[in-house]
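The records we work with from here on pair a chain with its fold. Taken together, the tokens spell out the fold as the letters spell out the chain. To see the layout at work, look at the sequence and tokens printed below.
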Amino acid sequence: MIGYLRGRLLSKEPTQAIVEVAGVGYQVMIPLNVFYMLGEEGTETELHIHTHVRDDAIELFGFPTTGERSLFRRLIGISGVGPKLALAIIGGTGPADLLNAIDEGDYARIVQIPGIGKKTAERLVLELRDKLPEMRAELHAEASALSPASALKVDLVSALVNLGYRRRDAEKAADGAVQNAGEDTDFGDALKTALAILLG
């Protein structure tokens, strides 16, 4: 089974990416949030892989951290949630927001995800709520392990999206701000740079 890939990003789409490793292009299914986190085509990337074996196909699902991969595996362990729906759930809210919605029993937020009805939302909350401390610890541990530049980008994108900007625009502005940031640049200065890029 394939558990990890590191190679050149040949192409990316909102639902999949192709990563070249030693001359072989691996087609990897990804959630929407990962599409925005991946770099430009031609750059090196790495993904933690879940290999899903069916009678008629072998599919690879990729995530930036083992914490997100673990969340995906928990989701597909729930009755009625297959791999494609699990990707939609993670990509539709983001891992942290999903866990908050489960914790708060916010069914209205969960059913806004395409493919999720009331019964599935109730099942998610019922089966995952008691596992939240462990799941949050997994996500937090890997977020803490991000490089300063990666952590800054994640924070900038989150702030810009909360301000009402489209995620794609927020990603581009955050990339520009991170590239211009020096070692002593704090979040406030980086956010001002990102906003200046957006207002350009």
